[in-house]
Design brief:
With 384 residues, the protein is an alpha+beta fold. The protein is 32% helix and 28% strand. Helix 2 runs parallel beside helix 7, helix 4 crosses helix 5 and helix 5 (126-137) packs across helix 6 (140-153).
């Protein structure tokens, strides 16, 4: 009897752990990932290189993952100062009548741009998406033109947008590779991560009523390092997910399109992440925090100055990879004062087997004033 009780307790503990942790965390240590979805890819965020792919350019409906472009264009409005989080947006009857996933906004009242963006990022709200689109471009139709223009700018050649929500439309499609491109652009915005990392929140309507917001991307809560993404689900598209995760200075983007059900999309996205983090590592090639050289300064109030790369550069490689990367510099022997902080004085070139992978500006990190006549006289006297 005692043995039976022990077995039952162990079984209950096992079952409870499965309930409390709905996202599978089985590591993929091999070279293949067993997926059942229609299309998928795993991309290195820093370089854009594809680490795994399954029909990555197949034209497919992507449901609410369309909203990643809606989010990107909205974030760009924040960047250029056209709107801020406190900007009030008057909603329309059209926006408030959107079906599907929504936060039930009221028509003809003012919501803050921050609250609407949060509702799209967290809750995939169709009504909030249309409200933002109408405010930015005057109409959803005009906004969709901007969406397709941006897609062309990003070389997303296998994408066509028809609306800003992802609601079913015959001519609307994208592919896993293009979805990764959009998420990469979105993930560069700090404001996005302010909302994408929230698990639960609420939207307080102007009337005072509240709508609970729960992040549709469950990996935010259940996968270590996940800090963003977008779900999508319709009968036509199946269950979709694009997500980003960062571990050990390496950020990966995983895209799943056409999974059989919601749980499967999260499990298969997790498989891709586990495969990437188990088999690849980030190798730092250029470190912007350390000087790469010291140059003489001509006619300046200091004789020498440290020179830095303007940005970091790292590559994601297979663990154990011994590939050598060549780092060369194009720069003058000396620089002439005056110079200002972030003045470009040359470039660092990263290459592999003769192929240029990256060119990065070389800059000074402080102002260098030119010598005045008095300074020149004092130097002559000092030397003499």
């Amino acid at each position: 009897m005692k043995k039976f009780l022990i077995i039952m307790i162990m079984l209950c503990l096992t079952l409870s752990s499965l309930v409390l942790s709905p996202i599978s965390a089985l590591a993929e240590s091999g070279n293949e990932v067993d997926l059942t979805c229609k299309s998928a890819c795993l991309v290195d965020y820093a370089s854009g290189n594809m680490l795994y792919s399954h029909n990555p350019k197949e034209h497919l409906p992507i449901a609410s993952m369309v909203k990643m472009m809606t989010i990107l264009l909205t974030l760009e409005q924040f960047d250029n100062g056209s709107i801020n989080e406190d900007t009030l947006i008057t909603t329309t009857e059209n926006a408030s009548s959107m079906g599907g996933s929504q936060v039930f906004i009221d028509p003809y009242v003012d919501y803050s741009a921050g609250d609407l963006l949060k509702s799209v990022v967290m809750a995939s709200a169709n009504d909030a998406s249309v409200a933002l689109a109408e405010y930015i471009s005057g109409s959803e139709k005009a906004f969709v033109v901007k969406m397709n223009d941006k897609a062309k700018e990003l070389d997303m050649l296998d994408t066509n947008y028809v609306n800003c929500t992802g609601l079913p439309a015959p001519e609307q499609y994208s592919c896993a590779q293009d979805c990764a491109v959009v998420l990469k652009e979105v993930a560069e915005h700090e404001l996005y991560h302010k909302y994408s990392t929230i698990w639960m929140d609420e939207l307080v309507h102007p009337s005072g009523r509240k709508t609970e917001l729960v992040n549709t991307n469950r990996l935010i809560r259940y996968y270590e390092g996940c800090d963003g993404g977008k779900t999508g689900s319709t009968n036509e598209a199946g269950c979709c997910l694009s997500a980003s995760a960062k571990r050990n200075n390496m950020r990966l983007i995983s895209v799943i399109i056409g999974a059989q059900n919601s749980q499967t999309r999260f499990n298969e996205c997790t498989k891709l992440f586990n495969y990437g983090f188990a088999n690849y590592e980030s190798r730092n090639i250029v470190d912007a925090s350390k000087p790469v050289m010291n140059l003489k300064v001509s006619k300046g109030q200091q004789d020498n100055v440290d020179i830095y790369a303007k940005e970091n550069y790292a590559v994601v490689v297979k663990k154990g990879d011994k590939t050598n990367y060549d780092v060369t510099f194009e720069n003058p022997v000396a620089i002439k004062a005056p110079t200002k902080q972030d003045d470009v004085i040359g470039k660092v070139i990263v290459s592999n087997s003769g192929n240029v992978l990256k060119e990065i500006d070389l800059v000074v990190k402080s102002n260098i004033d030119a010598l005045s006549l008095k300074d020149c006289f004092d130097k002559v006297v000092e030397t003499w």
